[in-house]
Design brief:
4-stranded mixed beta sheet; Endonuclease, Chain A; alpha+beta; about 50% helix; globular; about 150 residues
Length: about 150
């Protein structure tokens, strides 16, 4: 039997890692729903940008990403494995660069990204997310009012 390389073994394990509908995501969605929020799940907020948000508030243009502490390099809980350290450092730093790029692309398209760490309490994160959504909705409403109050000349 052929022995797999370390990188192949790591990639095989990573492919078994759940990437959607994780326990943390579901807890956050339940907390948001219990507070009356309605949203879409696992959608690409911006057409042409191949990045999928975990939770999307379309009219408010808010995209929520639930980031795992290990995979996204949480400043409080990130660990750097000693085995295959170079691979893991490159992988996690690459994830962080991609997260920053995603946030910038969303801002360029008029959206706002909200990042929730897996270690956050779902109820507290839901309150934070809903505060951002309410603020964005208010901003968008005021912009609409400003445009409609300008007289046509």
């Amino acid at each position: 039997m052929e022995k797999l390389s370390t990188t192949t073994t790591v990639r095989a394990r990573m492919s078994r890692q759940k990437s959607r509908d994780t326990g943390v995501e579901i807890a956050l969605r339940k907390a948001l729903h219990a507070k009356g929020a309605r949203y879409r799940v696992h959608k690409r907020p911006v057409k042409g940008v191949r990045r999928e948000a975990d939770i999307v508030f379309g009219p408010a243009r808010v995209a929520v990403f639930v980031d795992g502490c290990f995979w996204h390099g949480c400043p409080l809980h990130a660990t750097w494995p000693k085995n295959n350290a170079e691979f893991w450092r490159a992988k996690i730093e690459g994830n962080r660069r991609r997260d920053g790029d995603t946030d910038a692309r969303l801002v360029d398209a008029g959206w706002l990204a909200v990042r929730v760490w897996e270690h956050e309490q779902a109820d507290e994160a839901a309150v934070r997310v809903l505060a951002v959504v309410a603020s964005r909705r208010a901003d968008l409403r005021s912009k609409v009012r400003e445009r409609s109050s300008v007289p046509n000349i």
